[in-house]
Amino acid sequence: MMPVTFLWPQFLWLLLVVPLLIAAYVWLLRRRRKTALNYASLSIIRAAMGPGQSVRRHIPPALFLLALVAMLIAAARPHAVVSLPSDQQTIILAVDVSGSMRATDVKPNRLEAAQAAVKTFLADLPRHIKVGLVAFAGSAHIAQLPTLNREDLNTAIDRFQLQRGTATGNGIMMAMATLFPDAGIDIEALSDERPSRSSMRIGQGPALNDGAKTPAPVPPGSYTSAAVIMLTDGQRTTGVDPLEAAKFAADRGVRVYTVGVGTPEGETIGFEGWSMRARLDDETLKTVAQSTRADYFYAGNATDLSKVYESLSSRFALETKETEISSLVALAAALLAMLSAALSLAWFNRIV
Q1: By CB count within 10 A, which of 4, 193, 239, 320 is most buried?
Q2: pTM for this structure?
Q3: Rounded to whole angstroms, how far apart are CA atoms 49 and 47?
């Protein structure tokens, strides 16, 4: 049962009037019964009322009483945690395209499984939500600016090309630069693969343009107009520290959902004449998600990956949050009052 809180709980004292109204109704019934005894024969009254009339006559007043109770509860301004259509307007998908994504522990390989899962995610996502794509490896770039056109997004997904390196922090920062183009984030610096530049701390290095004003931090997760979903299969090897990038996102209220793909033991792969063992850094991904008030998902195979994106799609379609439900309770009160009046008119040709 969902917990309900009240903004003005003092109005609930008005519910004490309800027992008084019930007592008044019972008193009126008894008074009418005494008046009815003056008739020559009670059988005439029973015949006039017909079968079931004695029960029917209590239904409209009972409905009206429930309507009154609902109105008094609405006056107390109740709040509850409910699922409502999401007001999320933009989602940035940051996808790892490092060489380790060719590993086949997720069939047919990690990249193709990720591409299929992301396409399914786009198909299930509400059409009013814009989606942008960021691809990252040793550097990060915008594969597709936020758009409502799902065909353009699918085309951009099919164009993913594997590259060396894994700069998870750069992927987050490029997503933030896409969401906040006026924030002063230096995209060229983030795209620079030289460690001397791109691995500097966000607040001190070239991630922010010179002279850019840093806005006052807001509560993590409080920005409800956009979110970032990052999928990766490996550890950061270059670029911005992902925890610093997560802090940058958290200070702007943006949630960064993380998806780890691959098996815990990893896999040794070869790429352009070199080999490496790709291991999933799930602890960092968990920390990134937690610090931004989002969630971490692990996908060990293609089926799990599809389920993860299916869950994310439904999450962005319906959002569970605490909200005021006074209008819903007031609507219920109005419907009960109208039903009470309608039944009274239909059965007794009078209103209650």
Answers
A1: 239
A2: 0.65
A3: 5
